[in-house]
């Protein structure tokens, strides 16, 4: 195992000196990870899997421990085996197959005392681990205050208690969110204290029911959801520990599909942003709530993962005496508005339509929730509800109710981010970029200033088709033909309505009205295939 103490003495204890980059022919980051033992909580999450893949493929680690809970009657080892055999670890299997043997799943759960670890596993972590990435936390914004605190805040508290016992710990990197201080339009890379001490929040939920936790919740009034609230409390908790542990906080903004690693456009997770794109592409959402001028602060998942890897290195070798925070965001470095996003989606969805689309990916943009719900209800819910009834009558199953609910929930989650703008200061992230030598800058993609949004959206939509919707590339031509047919049918329908309206105005005799309605109805029946 690399000696963290020895490495840190080479560069001092405070801010990174100008000469930290050193030898430009050798990766300093990968050299630091030589022989290290890593613990990842949340390693099976969207970000966690990309982080694990990057560490296995690029860093000569000794071992990686994943804290994994039982899920769907699958044991932790079975979940790990299934994950490592998935498509996203294909490059690891081809390039460094021996690295797969370095990963070990430990049965545990941050919601349990002592993280649910056995005494033997706990002792192993205390004796061996030198780097910890704490990603474990649910991102459900509709969870109760008590659930959010007990899982996120108390889970982080338990992780800190374990880390304090680790003999070789040289870096603990916690993943928060850029929106933990959502009520500040300019967010610096610092912790903003909450009006109530974190341990009091924990006590209020540990020994009380949901009703008695309301006073504590009111002290944190103004938070849009309990996910953001809990992250705000956690940051204050970490601030209290800044002198006892080599800590850092990384705050990603809205995490989206990958830029480069493991594959361009990779995603296997229907998070809020991806879920909305899928809903728009499948024609399930006729309206989206956003303000065109607001900044779309999106960060590709591999940029966030590479930032975590590099932050652990910088914290270990510089050993700052303060809690260093990194705003892993794109808004200040590569500005992109929601209006730009809509423009790119409309362009690339025509070129890369989703093959299973039952209608056109046509949608309107509004900042009004009222108009959004009217459009959603009248243009999508009612027609699909009637269609669903027809499918059930004929004994077929409809996926619309689940998709509709998912699309509605996703819009409710991201509305805060699509109708507001923030300025996230990124001085520490820029400093991290400057400290990487030429080799490390090629290995770790953390500079979003090099990202081209137009190309990225093409890759992202193509990635959704391939990795999430499991659409084969050979089906793209058929999808485009289907899109053109739907487009022709739509404009034909508009033309029929215009002609019908004109005939009703110009020749308003009963016979003409009856004749027009008859031809419109029979044509509609023919188009729908009922005759």
UniProtKB/TrEMBL annotation:
Residues 36-262 form the Ketoreductase domain. It holds the Pfam family Sterile. Residues 1-26 are annotated as: Disordered. Its EC number is 1.2.1.84. It is a multi-pass membrane protein. It is found in: Membrane. GO terms for biological process: long-chain fatty-acyl-CoA metabolic process. Its main location: membrane. SUPFAM superfamilies: NAD(P)-binding Rossmann-fold domains (SSF51735). InterPro entries: FAR (IPR026055), FAR_C (IPR033640), FAR_NAD-bd (IPR013120), KR_dom (IPR057326), NAD(P)-bd_dom_sf (IPR036291). It catalyses: a long-chain fatty acyl-CoA + 2 NADPH + 2 H(+) = a long-chain primary fatty alcohol + 2 NADP(+) + CoA. Keywords: Lipid biosynthesis, Lipid metabolism, Membrane, NADP, Oxidoreductase, Transmembrane, Transmembrane helix. It is an enzyme of class 1 (oxidoreductase). One of its GO terms (cellular component) is peroxisome. Belongs to the fatty acyl-CoA reductase family. This is Fatty acyl-CoA reductase. It comes from Rhipicephalus microplus (Cattle tick).
């Amino acid at each position: 195992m690399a000696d963290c103490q020895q490495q840190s003495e080479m560069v001092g204890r405070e801010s990174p000196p100008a000469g930290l980059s050193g030898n430009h022919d050798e990766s300093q980051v990968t050299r630091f990870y030589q022989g290290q033992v890593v613990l990842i909580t949340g390693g099976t999450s969207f970000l966690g899997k990309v982080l694990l893949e990057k560490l296995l493929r690029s860093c000569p680690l000794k071992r990686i421990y994943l804290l994994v809970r039982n899920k769907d009657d699958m044991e932790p080892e079975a979940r790990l085996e299934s994950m490592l055999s998935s498509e996203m670890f294909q490059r690891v299997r081809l390039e460094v197959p021996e690295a797969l043997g370095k990963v070990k799943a430990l049965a545990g759960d941050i919601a349990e005392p002592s993280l649910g670890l056995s005494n033997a596993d706990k002792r192993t972590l205390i004796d061996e681990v030198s780097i910890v990435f704490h990603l474990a936390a649910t991102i459900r914004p509709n969870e109760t205050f008590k659930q959010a605190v007990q899982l996120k805040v108390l889970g982080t508290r338990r992780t800190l208690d374990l880390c304090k016992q680790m003999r070789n710990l040289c870096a603990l990197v916690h993943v928060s969110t850029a929106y933990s201080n959502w009520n500040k339009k300019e967010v610096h890379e610092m912790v903003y204290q909450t009006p109530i001490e974190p341990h009091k929040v924990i006590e209020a939920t540990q020994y009380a029911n949901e009703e008695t936790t309301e006073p504590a919740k009111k002290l944190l009034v103004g938070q849009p959801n309990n996910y953001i609230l809990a992250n705000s409390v956690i940051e204050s908790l970490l601030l209290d520990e800044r002198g006892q542990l080599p800590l850092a906080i990384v705050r990603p903004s809205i995490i989206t599909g990958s830029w480069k690693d493991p594959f361009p456009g990779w995603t296997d997770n229907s998070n809020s942003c991806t879920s909305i794109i899928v809903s728009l592409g499948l024609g399930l959402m006729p309206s989206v709530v956003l303000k065109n001028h607001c900044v779309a602060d999106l960060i590709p998942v591999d940029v966030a993962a590479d930032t975590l890897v590099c932050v652990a290195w910088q914290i270990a070798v510089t050993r700052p005496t303060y809690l260093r925070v990194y705003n892993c965001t794109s808004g200040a470095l590569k500005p992109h508005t929601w209006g730009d996003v809509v423009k790119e989606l409309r362009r690339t969805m025509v070129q890369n339509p989703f093959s299973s689309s039952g209608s056109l990916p046509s949608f309107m943009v509004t900042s009004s929730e009222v108009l959004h719900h009217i459009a959603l209800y009248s243009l999508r819910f009612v027609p699909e509800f009637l269609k669903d009834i027809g499918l059930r009558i004929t004994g077929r199953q409809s996926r619309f109710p689940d998709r509709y609910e998912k699309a509605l929930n996703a819009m409710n989650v991201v509305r805060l981010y699509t109708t507001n703008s923030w300025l996230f200061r990124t001085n520490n992230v820029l400093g991290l970029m400057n400290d990487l030598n030429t080799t490390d800058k090629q290995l770790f993609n953390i500079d979003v200033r090099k990202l081209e949004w137009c190309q990225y959206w093409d890759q992202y939509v193509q990635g959704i088709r391939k990795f999430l919707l499991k659409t084969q590339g050979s089906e793209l031509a058929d999808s485009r033909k289907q899109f053109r047919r739907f487009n022709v049918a739509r404009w034909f329908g508009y033309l029929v309505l215009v002609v019908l309206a004109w005939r009703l105005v110009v020749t308003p005799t009963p016979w003409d009205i009856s004749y027009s309605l008859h031809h419109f109805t029979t044509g509609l029946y023919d188009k729908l295939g009922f005759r």
